[in-house]
Structure formats: structure tokens, C-alpha cells
Specification:
Radius of gyration: 21 Å
Order of helices and strands: EEEEEEHHEHEHEH
Helix content: 25-40%
CATH superfamily of the largest domain: Metal-dependent hydrolases
CATH topology of the largest domain: TIM Barrel
Oligomer: single chain
Number of domains: 2
CATH architecture of the largest domain: Alpha-Beta Barrel
Shape: elongated
Largest sheet: 5 strands, mixed
């Protein structure tokens, strides 16, 4: 068991149903989970002096595409509408691999952590050149954020009437197999777990109805 104490904060903003605020308050963290909030708490672990600080719950980010962190300032996409923006960036993303996915995730996760976010979701729906969901899970572990990655997918490319280039789509049987793999490898349903996996096929212009249905069935079967 590991624990530490945030002690003597000028104010602890609890965000409980009563929106209580505790002056000169303490927060005890045990095994990565808040164990107690109040005054005069004690610990056998380390202590962080929060005098002069406001302590709030961590922020929760419910929508992100971490792989896009490295391509925010591409000139051709700055003033484009959604489809134009995607068409501008698809060729760049198609050249990504595991290292680019990891570095982009590290960048986005570090920014979130520095902004007070302690839990984020991530919708990753393209896997070029050997990239895997594993790359972003490893990045989240390195930064230390709770992570709810979703194994997204695109299965309908331009040659079949979809929006993304064929180089960024996957066969649906391979998508479903990898969805099952990442759930089995990473999903931890326990309270306070650091990683929980979801399934998230991309937009109607890039996946089939069959994939949507099969993904829903798999998610129900796996309890995610």
C-alpha cells in the first residue's frame, strides 16, 4: 500500500453534492485513490504542503484524439471545414507509425496533466504502419493519467465510397480481432483502475453498419 497526504490547503473544493469547501483542509491519497478529505488527517507516507493552494478534484476529459497533437498547425487545414481538414491531414497521418503515435500521445497527455486533468478518454481510429492502441496506453502509463482509450476503426476507404484513403482503413475481421485483443490485454474494470478500454468505430462515412453492429455485440459480451 502506498499513500501520501496533501496537507493544509488554503481551501479544498470537494465538489460533493453540497459543494462543500474546507478551509485549511487535507486530502489523503491511498493506492491512487482519494481515501479521506477533511482536517487534521495523518499519514505514514509522504506529505505535500499545500499552504497557499486551492485543491480541487482532477478534471475529466471526455473527448480527445491524442494522435492529432502533432498536426495542429498544418497550414492547409487551418481554415478548412471538417471534410477538407480531414482530407488535408489524412496523408500526413498515413505516414505515422508507433513512435509518432506515442510521441503525439505523450504531448497531449502532458498538456492535459499540466492543465489539471487526471483522467482522459481517447478515440484512436487509425493504425498505420504497425501503430497500435498499445502505443497510447504506454504513453498514458508514462505520464501517469488514468486512461480510457477507445479502439476505434475505419473500414470503408475512398475506393468503396468512404472518405479516408484506402491506406488508412482496415479489414473488419482484423478490427474485431484487435478490439478483443486490447480488451483482454488492457481493460481493468476494478474501481480506481488506471486503464479501461472502450470500442468506438468511426463515423458513418468510414465504417459499415455491420461493423457497428458487431462492435456493439462484442462490447456487450466483454462488458465494456
Amino acid at each position: 500500500m502506498t499513500e501520501f497526504l496533501i496537507r493544509n490547503a488554503t481551501v479544498v473544493v470537494t465538489m460533493n453534492p453540497d459543494r462543500a469547501e474546507i478551509a485549511d483542509g487535507d486530502v489523503l491519497i491511498r493506492d491512487g485513490v482519494i481515501a479521506a478529505v477533511g482536517k487534521g488527517l495523518v499519514t505514514a507516507g509522504s506529505v505535500i504542503d499545500a499552504c497557499g493552494c486551492v485543491v480541487t478534484p482532477g478534471l475529466v476529459n471526455t473527448h480527445h484524439h491524442l494522435y492529432q497533437s502533432l498536426t495542429r498547425a498544418v497550414p492547409g487545414g487551418q481554415d478548412a471545414l471538417l471534410f477538407g481538414w480531414l482530407k488535408t491531414l489524412y496523408p500526413i497521418w498515413a505516414r505515422f507509425g508507433p513512435e509518432e503515435m506515442r510521441v503525439s500521445a505523450l504531448t497531449g497527455l502532458a498538456e492535459l496533466a499540466l492543465s489539471g486533468c487526471t483522467l482522459t478518454s481517447d478515440h484512436l481510429y487509425l493504425y498505420p504502419n504497425g501503430a497500435r492502441l498499445d502505443d497510447t496506453v504506454d504513453a498514458a502509463r508514462e505520464i501517469g493519467l488514468r486512461f480510457h482509450p477507445t479502439r476505434g476503426a475505419m473500414s470503408i476507404g475512398e475506393s468503396d465510397g468512404g472518405l479516408p484513403p484506402d491506406s488508412l482503413v482496415e479489414a473488419e475481421h482484423a478490427i474485431l480481432a484487435d478490439m478483443e485483443r486490447v480488451i483482454d490485454r488492457f481493460h481493468d474494470p476494478r474501481e480506481g483502475s488506471m486503464v479501461r478500454v472502450g470500442l468506438a468505430p468511426c463515423s458513418p462515412f468510414s465504417v459499415s453498419r455491420d461493423l457497428m453492429r458487431e462492435t456493439a455485440i462484442l462490447a456487450r459480451d466483454k462488458g465494456v
